[in-house]
């Protein structure tokens, strides 16, 4: 291992990137006077790419050792995980590279703390909550529309034009509207219906903010089924709409390790979790193979705490191999700077989604080798300047077709802000009106069923909710 790392000049490369990072940090005070936040973060991403390519070279060598057949049946198999490697030389390099990761944490958009900004944030947060809970409440009563999909498919209606698919895209855009984000996109042709109709894809998006999935959902030119952690589906009303309304798929992240634990004799409570994982994967395979659905998942798992690309989890690549489809990388720029972990709600600002060409896994390489190769693609794309892009067109008026976003660190354009305020007013009219209409229908149904009191209606609704949540618990 030492000889191979010497051939790759790991020691010299680590020292060189450490010097580059320190030089950048020393120049920050000067750079803040002459550059924008987006430009400084771009420099951080370029340095991060250099550092991470060194890490990937080391991981490639560890993977080669891991995949070599053991010399004896009882010989220990070296780990392919850099974090679990015991080699002192590798551990030393990993420690230095991990320190650089922390130093290259992205700079976030500062809050001005003015009264106007606080009022604007309160209005946006209240609207976001209205769309999230009120919108999902409405979606729950639109679930029967999914039955129409069976009929429409007989007439070759594409997925994106099915009722609940259109509603899902609208819902994602509405949440982006409520957040006050001015979204731009690039190369959406890589995910058009023409591209994915006969060959569904697995969209893997970067995850540094709560906005990422919403931006992908709202800007994707084809309808996507999202794979989310099980806890999201266990939220009453929200989980019902997310699963039964939009047809998204719950996955228990810990289930990937269940078969390994079972092999070691730990059978007391894990068998059921393994079976639940198998059921989830069967639902996923059916959505992709039978209905031609493209699915979306974050290969990083949880949100990045630094804004930089994290290590890729192995789970999404097991899912990809199960369905045997190509991967479409989606890069989200600017969302972390607006809504990093720890900030209560997002600032209003600009963000960008870049859809990269499809990545076809190499069948001659292992799953982990393809995982490392794909991570190089992401790092290379992130280190490039945000490409010229037009603001994503939609029926929401805050997004103006044909305009260009010059710098993600600048405030939203004035027309965007004015149209955003108008859109918020529309949301406060439409959603409460729809909720009131549904509540009125529930009240009339209660009267028909002989439940005439308010408390009786509340008990009926509570009973239905408990029943639905119980059903979700045992089937999720």
Describe it for me?
- There is one protein chain.
- The chain has helices at 2-7, 10-26, 28-34, 37-67, 88-103, 115-140, 145-154, 163-179, 193-196, 212-219, 230-233, 238-245, 258-263, 271-289, 315-323, 335-338, 367-382, 414-448, 454-475; strands at residues 181-186, 201-205, 224-229, 249-251, 294-297, 326-333, 349-355, 390-391.
- With 476 residues, the chain is of the alpha/beta class.
- An eight-stranded mixed β-sheet has the order 4-3-5-2-6-7-1-8, with helices on both faces.
- Helix 4 runs antiparallel to helix 17 (367-382), helix 6 packs across helix 12 and helix 8 packs across helix 10 (212-219).
- The chain is globular and about 80 Å long.
- Residues 256-271 and 389-405 have low confidence and may be disordered.
**CATH topology description of the largest domain:** Glycerol-3-phosphate (1)-acyltransferase
**Number of contiguous helices:** 19
Spatial shape: globular
Strand content: 5-15%
Largest β-sheet summary: 8 strands, mixed
**End-to-end CA span:** 45 Å
Structural class: alpha/beta
GO molecular function, one term: 1-acylglycerol-3-phosphate O-acyltransferase activity
Pathway: Lipid metabolism
Keywords: Acyltransferase, Lipid biosynthesis, Lipid metabolism, Membrane, Transferase, Transmembrane, Transmembrane helix
GO biological process, one term: phosphatidic acid biosynthetic process
